[in-house]
Task: structure prediction
Amino acid sequence: MDYCPGNVVFADSRPKALIDFDLARPTTRVADLANALYWWAPLVDPEDRASSLVKAHIPTRVRAFADAYGMTAGQRAQVIPLANRMVANFALTAQAAAEVDPVFRRWWDEGVKDKLPRARHWLARQSAAIQSAL
Result:
């Protein structure tokens, strides 16, 4: 549940290791995929994406990810509704973490507090197109 780019060690442009397991916990296949998609598709407003992904066609990327992950039709039907709930909850948990952890406070102050609402609104607007691609 924390498979984000900052927790992947790359060597020769290929992922070599996963680190930082502080948020690891039991989960479902759908929740794990929704979380990974948030970071790697990514399910965020183009304003907050890496420059190489600003024009990325997210529905196509989500479909490729689900295909590679071997998602069933039932699991695909759950991904986007769950992603919407997950992204909405990110702001709540990030703000709570910022209140008690200086690292999260720095991230919050450096823009997470603005990026998360944009992600939530962007995903809500794009949900139908992404779900259709699945």
